[in-house]
Amino acid sequence: MNSLNNNFSMPETQLPWHTQSIDFTLRKLNTNPEIGLTNAEAEQRLSHYGKNEIQEEAGRSSWQILLDQFQDIMLLMLIGVAIVSGILDLINIRGNNLSAEEIPFKDTIAILAIVILNGLLGYLQESRAEKALAALKNLSSPKIQVLRNGQRIEVDAPNLVPGDIIFLEAGDQLCADGRIIEASNLQIRESALTGEANAVNKYPLAEGLAEETVLGDRVNQVFTGTEVLQGRGKAVVVKTGMETELGKIAQMLQSVENEPTPLQKRMDQLGQVLVTSSLVLVAVVILIGVLQTGWSRIQELVEVSLSMAVAVVPEGLPAVITVTLALGTQRMVKRKALIRKLPAVETLGSVNTICSDKTGTLTQNKMVVQQVEAVQHSWFITGEGYQPTGNFLNLQQQTIQASDYPELQTLLTACVLCNDATLSQNDQGQWQILGDPTEGALLSLAGKAGFNQQTLNSRIQRVTEFPFSSERKRMSVVCRNSELVMYTKGSPELILERCQFYHQGNEILPLTVQERNQILQTNNQMAANALRVLGFAYKPLTEIPAAEEEEHTEQNLIWLGLVGMLDAPRLEAQEAVAKCLQAGIRPVMITGDHQLTANAIAQQLGIAKPGNHILSGQQLEHLSQPELEQEVEQVNIYARVSPEHKLRIVQALQKQGKFVAMTGDGVNDAPALKQADIGIAMGITGTDVSKEASDMVLLDDNFATIVAATEEGRVVYSNIRRFIKYILGSNIGEVIVIATAPIIGLSGVPLSPLQILWMNLVTDGLPALALAVEPAEPNIMKRPPFSPKESIFARGLGAYIVRIGIIFSIITITLMVWAYNSGQESGNPNAWKTMVFTTLCLAQMGHALAVRSHERLTIEINPFSNPYLLASVVVTTLLQLMLIYLEPLRKFFNTELLTAQQLFICLGFSSLIFVWVEFEKLFMRWFKK
User: Fold this and answer.
1) Spatial CA neighbour of 355 closest among 626, 679, 630, 627
2) Where is the Cation-transporting P-type ATPase N-terminal domain (predicted)?
3) 21, 210, 327, 693: least CB-packed within 10 angstroms?
């Protein structure tokens, strides 16, 4: 069996390994469980299968990311402007056309500095490397104990091959997929891979499992990335590297392409529109200028064209957007949402479908007993979480004392003694469970009636036990006080089968068929209400039973009752779901739980209504992708779904035009998180892999936090539109003013590239930054989300920008013509340029105040709700005045001293923009009425 012929290769077409027996597996892998592989066989297999590693596809290098930033169409145009400006300065130097005060190449240097800064900003946003695959690699142990040549040795994990016999011990991190051949009390934590929180008991003799058995139920296998919690065992390696379940996830991760966000698409569209429009306008101006005066003014026309090109590009926009997104991330962190990728802040505002896990996100992830049922009595229990405080209520909602009901006292005693968990308070005074959450809920229940675990355990000794297993589905403990008593808990149906009597008051009565049917009916009703139900029984004993006598001992039991517990919905989740529906966002629940449980919780929260269709993982498995795409329109609950199904659900929703946020915590969730428009990882229970694949991390694992983050995303997008409206309105005005000057015969360029950069970066930039923190409009979550495919110019923004740009230009051109003529007469021929420059800058201050709201007048808005805007208007106005009245700045920016009269004229003309926008609002009100 141990010989390896030269043409050995793994069988490619056989059934999955979990369906095979141990002997068949060892024979197919040509290995011996007592000797293992020889070194020569291991080397040959290593050369055939390759290293046992997760392989990464080559991504973009840092240099490539940096160079990609300079492919932006607006930056390319600015680079062209800088080059032409430098050439013109060089011509002027050679022709001695520069005055003594003029500094050569300052426009070129300033423009190139802006280009470089914008390129670096983009690089910093994109340079976060994709670390999800690196986190996957970290899940496998660097060393593993292997049987080679009959000896137990330690080898590096990458050198493991199919057919190797590996040893499993508590604390080991597994680095290959294997078929178990020996096990002793072996428990594996597979939550990173499957999303299931509870440890899985492993059994080597579990044979004949169905081919479609899901990963979490393959109890005869172990997998890469999981951890041995307790026990020991031995397994034969069946898959390594990219063939493992973890490797398949890595392949899925690498197959998911990163799509540009809506904001990135809109900015690309904006750049193309602006650059194209600018080039067309430049061509028109040069053509008209040449037709009017011939080629004699070509240099002046080129200078005009350069100024127009600089004016059309909002140089400060990338910085303003980056700061806006960064401020959005800070606000989201305060609301327990950590944004990992900056553009995701705005993307959240477009979400119209939120696919959420149930456990821990929509629910508290704390099992709380809600109901206790004896044969003749029903009790309902109040309280939250694991805190052992609450009341027992009867059917009339009256508080009762447990001491008045002997059967209830016995049942609560069983809850404490037939239990391996511990309930305690931490340093912060919070109650927490060490052990199984279900057993913790039983301790909390007993504590509400005054049954203290420590007191009972000190008085009553556990002498033996029959432990729980997935085959038995029950647990029994034998305890000694003054007498021997066995307490049993487990599956209600199985416990009831073993009962012949029931406890009622101080009596033990025979259990009739009618009472059995009543108990089963009550059990089904509780399960239909999303309760996890346990049955309890007990039996007095005369002697301690032997370990192999469990089957005989657990007969003729005395029925105590049913205990129903619930992972209750979060109190804030129902309100968050209602807010979602009001905002036009569809919440979808995806869970591994039973359909009844999922449906009950979904109805409590308002996610689903009675009669809504539920899709199970088994049904989903048999649907083709086109069929699933048709189903997702009607399904709000997915039950018994494995994490790998999430990727299909996301893709189907996206195919239907939905913009999807998806939550997840396990390694298997990573491909779906990466595929989703917004991948949301759990901060508390999430794995490193899921966090690295996500766009956002929930610091409190709470659904309500997703809704809060979505609201912030809408605010950010609204503010981005607001300051684009503000910036581009003036930019268009600048372009038209510059283009008009030579056409109407004015001598000289009204604005130099340096002055335009000042306007675009400072007088536009500072108020734009202040508009980025404008508070949310009152109706922000009372309207449907805007389509992620909509243009940046949608919903009247484009028309507004053009309209305001024209008003800007009409006001400024009127001033320019008057100032030019009066300047010629007064002997200050260049003052008109400074007046144009000043008017445009100051007009933007009024525009910034007016643009805060599309509908409300400025006097109707609290001026101190955005104090940053008031401060920016004051500071920017002072800075503009410094350019005129401080000599060093005046020389650098080529401005002229203005008289008080000229300054007041500039103020008068600039205030007309504010008046116009306010009158527009009044007109729109009248028009709507």
Assistant:
1) 679
2) 16-90
3) 210
Contact status, residue 319 vs residue 117, Cβ threshold 8 Å: yes
Q: Whose CA is closest to 687, among 190, 97, 35, 162?
A: 190
**Architecture of the CATH domain 260-293+300-315+729-928:** Up-down Bundle (1.20)
pLDDT at 31: 92
**CA nearest 738: which of 747, 725, 753, 751?**
751
What are the φ and ψ backbone dihedral angles of 538, each rounded to 5 degrees? -150, 175
Q: Low-confidence residues of the chain, pLDDT below 70?
A: 1-14, 56-61, 92, 94-104, 125-141, 192, 195-198, 257, 469-471, 643, 824-827
3-state secondary structure 572-619: HHHHHHHHHHHCCCEEEEECCCCHHHHHHHHHHHCCCCCCCCEEEHHH
Check residue 380 and give its pLDDT. 95
- Six-digit token pair at 392? 């027992």
Compute the half-sphere exposure of residue 445: CA atoms within 13 Å on the CB side of its CA.
Answer: 33
Cα-based torsion angle of the residue sequence 545, 548, 552, 556 in order, rounded to the nearest 10 degrees? 50
SS3 791: coil
pLDDT score, position 197:
59
Calculate the CA 642 to chain-centre distance: 19
Say if residues 847 and 730 touch (Cβ distance below 8 Å): yes
Residue in 164, 357, 677, 764 annotated catalytic: 357
Q: Is the model's pTM score more than 0.85?
A: no
Q: At a CB cut-off of 8 Å and minimum separation 6, what does 646 contact?
A: 355, 590, 662, 664, 669, 671, 672
Place of tokens 């072996």: 186
Does the structural domain 367-567 have CATH classification 3.40.50.720?
no
Q: For residues 502 and 511, is the Cβ–Cβ distance under 8 A?
A: yes
Q: Give the start-end residues of each E strand in 299-455.
A: 337-339, 353-357, 363-373, 378-381, 392-393, 399-400, 422-425, 431-434
So where are the chain's domains?
A: 17-44+137-245, 60-129, 260-293+300-315+729-928, 337-361+571-701, 367-567
Give the per-residue pLDDT at 746.
Answer: 84
How confident is the model at residue 854, as a pLDDT? 86
How far is it, in rounded angstroms, from Cα 635 to Cα 626? 15
* Tokens, residue 9: 């290769």
Kindly provide the b/e burial profile for residues 613-641, where b requires at least 16 CB atoms within 10 angstroms of the residue's own CB: ebbbbebbeeeeeeebbebbeebbbbbbb
Three-state secondary structure call for residue 162 = coil
Of 713, 672, 716, give the one whose Cα is nearest residue 694: 672
Q: What sign for the dihedral angle of Cα 381, 382, 388, 389?
A: negative
- The rounded Cα 396 to chain-centroid distance in angstroms is 45
Residue whose structure tokens are 């100024």: 307
CA torsion sign for 788, 791, 795, 800 is: positive
Helix, strand or coil, per DSSP, at residue 37: strand
Give how far Cα 622 sits from Cα of 209, 616, 625, 628, 645, Å. Answer: 19, 10, 10, 9, 12
Q: How far apart are CA 670 and CA 417, in angstroms?
A: 41
**3-state SS, one letter per residue, for 170-229:** CCCECCCEEEEEEEEEEEEECHHHHCCCCCEECCCCCCCCCCCCCHHHCCCEECCCCEEE
593 classed as catalytic = no
Classified by CATH at the fold level, domain 17-44+137-245 comes out as 2.70.150
DSSP at 258: -
Residues 6 or more apart from 183 whose CB is under 8 A from it?
Answer: 168, 202, 203, 204, 231, 232, 233, 234
Residues constituting the chain: 929
